[in-house]
Design the sequence.
């Protein structure tokens, strides 16, 4: 168990807190590129700061403080006027870095120079992998890491987003907890599908962890058995690669990348970039990777108010939200299955100290020459980069379709997958 003081250090993300200062040294995904292009303007809350994201007509993205410096109006209700965001109250306008580009009445009255003093905080933005990324920390900003999965083309990519009413860190700890796959995604799924028949997934025999430049590699050994239960990931050693728990809050399994983005101390934006491998008789790319389809997945069943629990991600959501708004780690009883958690917590506490001493935290990239499709130790990577046989694809699809949680006959890692995304996926599988 942890002390209350350490629990606070690990979970609080506001300005001036040790974790808040650490997280501000990283880039954060905040919205799908297509969504902000569709909406043009949207409010963003990140690390406890209220901001507004907008898409200028010249193609750039702006992230600035949400309150207008004139009278404090909410700029997220404004509109894009060329390369500027206009406040709806009196028409003041701001560029993508927060500089005032217009004060209509002041200019008519001959006070145009006043705009130089009416700035708002503005932050760097970038796009990668179909997402808009932002950086809230001190300059000079590090590079946005260009990891290799963002360039894979032998799959269909989609982005799902769900807001969770709980702290980000209990979500991120899931990334060093491989044993939960056996119970949460294996045995619990089997019970939901057929409560009368007791079936068990293959058991974990051991787990291991190793740290690399960008986080942790998780390995596992799984015993025989598990007939009739959703298959787990195969046994793997850390030397072969595995599930990756990466700085600062990323889970990468090859097919799936999840970011547990801290909205504030009490809520998290879960962003998932799902990569569904296509048969190898279809040669990519089948998509524009800067125009990845997106959707917002529901958290609860409207008929019951309970958290949805059929799909893999929804099961995770139920586990994380069930720990409370902020998990009380002073009451835990950790066992051998939790060795990854204790190591992760220790490393975060270390990195807070490094940042306080003026150093870059782990996982920071500043060398432009190496920031090109950075290779990662992902297990069985070739299936994602080269595809799978048509026969293997059809068999996998049939397995997923047998689930009562499939949508219109198609698999979905999360509840709420809309028809238009299913249609795009189906078109991609035909080549």
Sequence:
């Amino acid at each position: 168990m942890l002390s209350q003081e350490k629990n606070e250090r690990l979970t609080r993300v506001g300005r001036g807190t040790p974790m808040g200062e650490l997280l501000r040294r990283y880039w954060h995904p905040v919205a799908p590129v297509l969504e902000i292009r569709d909406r043009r303007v949207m409010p963003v809350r990140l690390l406890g700061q209220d901001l507004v994201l907008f898409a200028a007509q010249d193609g750039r993205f702006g992230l600035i403080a949400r309150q207008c410096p004139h009278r404090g109006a909410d700029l997220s209700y404004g509109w894009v006027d060329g390369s500027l965001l206009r406040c709806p109250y009196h028409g003041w306008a701001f560029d993508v870095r927060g500089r005032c580009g217009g004060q209509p009445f002041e200019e008519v009255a001959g006070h145009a120079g006043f705009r130089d003093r009416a700035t708002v905080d503005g932050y760097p933005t970038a796009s990668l992998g179909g997402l808009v990324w932002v950086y809230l920390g001190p300059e000079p900003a590090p590079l946005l890491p260009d990891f290799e999965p963002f360039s894979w083309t032998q799959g269909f990519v989609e982005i799902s987003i769900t807001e969770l009413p709980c702290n980000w860190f209990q979500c991120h700890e899931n990334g060093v907890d491989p044993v939960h796959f056996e119970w949460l995604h294996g045995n619990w799924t089997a019970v939901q599908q057929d409560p009368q028949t007791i079936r068990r997934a293959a058991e974990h025999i051991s787990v291991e962890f190793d740290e690399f430049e960008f986080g942790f590699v998780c390995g596992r050994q799984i015993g025989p058995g598990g007939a009739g239960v959703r298959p787990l990931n195969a046994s793997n050693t850390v030397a072969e690669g595995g599930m990756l728990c990466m700085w600062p809050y990323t889970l990468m399994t090859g097919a799936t990348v999840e970011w547990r983005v801290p909205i504030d101390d009490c809520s998290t934006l879960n962003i998932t970039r799902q990569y569904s491998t296509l048969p190898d008789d279809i040669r990519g790319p089948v998509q524009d990777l800067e125009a990845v389809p997106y959707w917002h997945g529901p958290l609860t069943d409207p008929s019951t108010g309970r958290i949805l629990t059929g799909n893999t991600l929804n099961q995770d959501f139920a586990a994380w939200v069930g720990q409370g708004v902020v998990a009380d780690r002073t009451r835990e009883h950790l066992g051998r299955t939790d060795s990854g958690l204790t190591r992760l917590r220790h490393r975060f506490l270390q990195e807070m100290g490094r940042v306080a001493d003026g150093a870059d935290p782990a996982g920071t990239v500043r060398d432009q020459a190496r920031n090109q499709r950075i290779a990662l130790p992902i297990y069985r990577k070739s299936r994602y980069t080269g595809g799978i046989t048509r026969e293997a694809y059809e068999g996998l699809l049939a397995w997923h379709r047998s689930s009562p949680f499939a949508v219109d006959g198609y698999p979905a890692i999360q509840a709420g997958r809309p028809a238009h995304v299913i249609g795009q996926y189906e078109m991609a599988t035909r080549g």
About this structure: The chain has two domains: 27-135, 148-430. The mean pLDDT is 93.
